[in-house]
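PROTOCOL LOG
Step 1. Enter all chains and additional molecules of the complex.
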Amino acid sequence: MAVTSMIGARIQRREDPKLITGHGNFIDDVNLVNMAHMSVVRSPHAHARIRSIDTSAAMASKGVVAVLTAADFKPVIGGPLPVTNSFVADKKQVPEQFPIAADEVAYAGEPVAVVVADDRYLADDAAQLVVVDYEPLPAVMDIEKAMEPGSPLVKSDRPDNIGWDAAFPGGDIDAAFAEADVVLKQRIGQQRVFPTAMETRGCVADYIPYDNRCTLWTSTQVPHFIRLFVGGALGVPESQFRVVSHDVGGGFGAKLRPYPEEYLATAASKLTERPVKWIEDRTESLQATTQGRGQIFDVEVAAKRDGTLLGLKFTQLLDIGAYHGVFSAFQVVACLLGGGCYTWKAINARSIGVFTNRMSTDPYRGAGRPEATHLVERIVDLVALELGMEPAEVRRKNFITSFPHTNNFGLVYDSGEYAKSLDRAMANIDYPALRKRQEELRAQGRYTGIGFSTYVEICGLGPSSATAPAAGIALVESSMVRVHPTGSVTVSVGTHSHGQGHETTFAQIVADTLGVPYDSVEIRHGDTGDTPFGYGTYGSRSLAVGGMAIMASCHKVVEKAKKLAAHAFEASEEDIVVDQGRYFVRGNPSEAKALAELAFASYGAGLPEGMEHGLEAVSYFDPPNFVWPFGCHICAVEVDPETGGVSIDRYVAVDDCGNVINPMVVDGQLHGGIAQGISQALFEEVLYDDETGQMLTGTMLDYFIPTMAEMPHFELDRTVTPSPTNELGVKGIGEAGTIASSIAVINAITDALTPFGIKHVEMPARPDRLWSMIKEARA
Amino acid sequence: MTQSVAMTINGRRREDHVEPRLLLVHYLREVAGLTGTHIACDTSQCGACTVLIDGEAVKSCSVFTVQADGRQVTTIEGLAEDGVLHPIQQAFWNEHGLQCGFCTPGFIMAAAYLLRQNPSPTDEEIERGLEGNLCRCTGYENIRKAVRSASQAMNRAGAEPTAQLVGSAAAPVED
Ligand code: FES
Ligand code: FES
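Step 2. Run joint prediction.
Step 3. Record the structure below.
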C-alpha cells in the first residue's frame, strides 16, 4: 500500500468523469413518476396592491392540476421566511415575508400564484391565463431617497424604509483625525450584480400523503439549513424530511438560503398529492434569485504626510431590497474589515440598511469582503496620489506585521506576511520595467496603468464565540467517518460542494490521516438522509471548518484502531506505533496490521473486554478563530482614450491560503474568483428603471456575462503561511480571487487616467463611462 | 396535435410523436432521456445546450424537435466510445477545465466542432470559437488550456476528429 502524502498533491478530480460525459445529476435531471410541474406567476410591478386574482381561466386550461394563491398556502405553510441576525443583531425592523404575496407586492418578480400542471409547457401556458388585478403604488428605488423622511414606503405597513442602523466604533476617531496632515473624502459605489450560477435554482418536492414524510431535491449550498426551515414551516420533523442536493451547478452565495419556491413546491406537492417540480428559467432567476453588493460607501481618511495611515471613517448604505435576505446583514462585515491589512489608530464605521422595491441582496462570492477591500485599497491609492508616493510604499509602510493581530474591532488576524506577497507579485510582473514602459507609452499618447490590491479576508465561519450573538448560532461543521469491514471508508459531511471538488480534496485528507488508499475513501454530502447536521458550504469554510471536523473523526478512528492493534499484538496501547496506516509494536515494523485488517477485526468476535463493535466516529468541529487568507494582485491595463475600452495586459496574483490540499483546485478557485471580480469591475450591473422599478437587465441579452474572449490569462503564484489555529494549517480560497480583483482593475484604470486628472473611477468601468470621463477631463 | 419525427441520436435511431413547439433540448432531455445537455438561459446566450446536428454545433434550445427530423444528432453522451473518453473530455479532466460542470457538456460539444473545423486553433481562434458558451466557475483559463491540449493530443494521435464525432452515427444501431 503506497501511502505517500496525498495532501498537497495535484490530483485530478474524481467528480469529473460523470460530468464530462453528461452523467451529472443536476436538479432538472431529477424526475419522478407522476411528477407535475409548477410555474410561478410573478408580479410585473415593483410595488402594487393586489385587488383580486382570477384563476378560473388557468384552472380550465389543458393539463392543469391546481392553481394556488396565498389563501391556499396559508393553512399549509406555517410562518415566514427566516432572517438571521448576522452582523446586526439589533435591527430596526424585520418585516415578515411569506413565501407568496397575499395583498401587496414589493418587488417585480414576487410570487403571487402558482400553476401546477402535467408538464412544464402546460404549466407555463396556464400561468399566462392567471389574471391579477393590481393597483400600482409608487416604487422606491433610490436608497438615499428611500431614507428621506416622508419617502414613499416600500411596503405600506412599515414605519419607514430603514432596516438597520448600526454603529461600529473602533477607537478614538477624533484623536486620529486630529493628528492628520491630509484628510481625503471619497464616495465609492458597489453596484448590484447577479451571482448568475450557470444552473438556475430549482427543486422537486415529493410529499407522501397520510404519512407526513417528504423528500425535497433542491439545488442548494445548504441542505441541512433548508430542511430546518422548510420542514419546520411545513410541520414535517427533520426525521421525516429529507433534503437531497446532488450536483449543483454553481451557487456563489445565491443558493445558501431557503427560497419561497422551495416552500411553495413542497406545499403544492402536499396539496396536490403529487411530486412537484419547479425549475427556474433564466429570466425568472434574474428577478427572483438574490443579488449581490448594492452598496454605497462614503469614506473619509486621515493620514500623515509621510504616508502613515491614521484614521478611517465610513458609512455603508446597503440596499436590502424589499425584504431582508436571510443573511443580508452578513455584508455588514465590510465595516469590520474596512481597515484591510493595515494598522489604524482608529476606524469608525456605520452601516445603514435601506429597503427598496427590488429583489433582496444577500451574500455573493466574498459578501462584504470584496467591498471592504475595494474601499480600503481605493483609499490607499488616493492617499498615495495625494502625497506623491508610490502606491506600494504606502501599503508597505502601514502593513500589519506582527501576529496574531487584533484589529480595531477586536477581530484577531491569525497569521500573515503581507510584504512577502507584495514583493513577490511586484517581482513577477517586473514592476520597474512596467513603470518605465508606462512612461514611454504615455509619451506616445497611450494610457496604461498598474493597479495594486493587497488584501486580507476573513473566512472559516465560524467560531461559536463569534457567531453566538447571531441568535445563539454556532456555525460548526460535522463529519461521520465509517471504516467498513474490508477497509473501505465512507465519510459523510455536513458541507456541500457545488463545484469546489470536495469529493476529491476531502478524500485526500482522509487518505493521509487514516493511512488508507485514496481510492478506498468515499465522500458523501448533500443528502440530509445520510449526513450529519452541518451548515453547508459558503464563506470559504468547508476546509477550515468541515475539513477539521473530518480530521477529528479520523483521529477518533485511529485511537480505536490503536486499541484493536494493541489487543491483536497483546501489547500495551502505548507501545503501538502508527505509520501511514500501518499499526505495529514499537521496534517491530515488519509485523504490522493495516487499518483494513483492524477494521475487519472490529466487526468480528474476540474484541477486548468492554469494547463496542465497529470502527467509526462522528465529530463536530467548532473552530477557535476565523482564518485570514491574504495576498497581492497586480493588474496592468491599457485604456483607449478614443473609445474608453479597457484591455487587461497582465494579471498577476500571489495568494496565501495557508497549506494547500490540492493546488489544481486552489488555482481553479482563484481563476473563477478573479474573473468574477474583474467582471464586476468592467461589465456587470443590475439596472432597474428608477420610476417604475422594472428590471432593465432582465435577460442574459441585457446583462453581460463575460465570455472567454474578455478574460485575460491569470499569472498565479503563492506563498504559504499556515494558519496556526487549525491542525491542517489551512485557510480558505473560494472567495479570495473575487475579494482581491475588482479593485486591482479599478486602481489600474485610475492609474492609467491620472494624466487626465482623473482620480477615481466607479464600477462598472464600461467604455461609455470612461469615454465620458476622458471627454469631460479634456474639455 | 403532434407530428412524427425520426432522428439518429448518438448512433441510435428513434421515432416519436411530438408537439411542433417542443424544443430539441427538451426532447433530448425529457423524451430521449439524455440529460447531459443542459439549459442555462432562455435567450440563446449560454451555449449549455450545444449539440451537434449533422456534425455542426447547434444550440438545441433554439431548434424545434421537428427541425431535427431526419438528422444525426450527437450529444455529450455520444462522445465517449466504449468507455474511452474523447480526447476533449480527457483534456477537460486533465486540465481542470470544469468546476461545477454545468456548462461543461456545452463547452465540450462546441470545442468538438471547433477542432473539427480548425484542428490547431490559436488562443484567439479558441476564444472566438467558444464565445457562444458561458462559464461562471472557471474564469475560462483552464477551458482555454483544455482545448489547446485536446488539439495537441488529437493532432498527435493523428485522429480525424470528424470520424470520432459522427462516424459511428452513420451506421444506425438497432435498439
Ligand atoms: S440554453 Fe442557453 S443557449 Fe441554449
Ligand atoms: S464549470 Fe460551472 S459554469 Fe462552467
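Step 4. Note key features.
Confidence is low (pLDDT under 50) at residues 161-175 of chain B.
Residues 87 and 157 of chain B are 10 Å apart (CA to CA).
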